[in-house]
Amino acid sequence: MGVYTFVCRNSGGEWTAKQHSGEIEASAATPYELQRRLVAAASAADSASGVQSSFSMVTPSSAVFQVVVGAVGGGAMISGGAAAGGGATSGGAAAEAPKEEKKEEEKEESDDDMGFSLFD
Predict the structure, then answer these.
(1) Which residue among 4, 53, 63, 110 is least crowded, i.e. fewest CB within 10 A of its CB?
(2) Nearest 10 degrees: CA dihedral of 22, 27, 32, 33?
(3) Could you tell me which residues belong to the region Disordered (predicted)?
């Protein structure tokens, strides 16, 4: 798994990005195109499958872009700071789906009869 962090800047209508601690650089006319180029460059540098990315504007002319290549489970989301276990489990140890709970619909109060009238 590889994590690539880029500092992005807009100068003169062109977006440029340089890897925070590495050699990858790219430039493009739009932030979207820059992200596509950076994901392609990071994917080429790391042969693992599954890519996640995050683009965060810091100011109108600067941003931070992070690409995670080879995320757990080939792109599965990691939540709560805990990584998922190995992908190969044997036997019938499949996780059961939680049972759906029947929810009672709350009866909304009607505004029709408030016990007074505005025109009394």
Answers:
(1) 110
(2) -110
(3) 83-120
Residue at 45 is within a domain: yes
The string of pLDDT tens digits covering residues 20-51 is 888 999 999 999 999 999 999 888 888 777 88
Q: Which of 71, 45, 48, 61 is nearest to 11 (CA)?
A: 61
Please say whether the beta carbons of 37 and 57 come within 8 A: no
Q: How many domains does the chain have?
A: 1
pLDDT at 61: 93
Whether 81 maps to a domain, the answer reads no
* Euclidean distance between CA atoms 83 and 73, whole angstroms: 10
| pTM of the shown model | 0.56
Q: Which domain holds residue 27?
A: 2-69
Q: Say which residue the tokens 């599954």 belong to.
A: 50
| Rounded CA separation 4/17 (Å) | 12
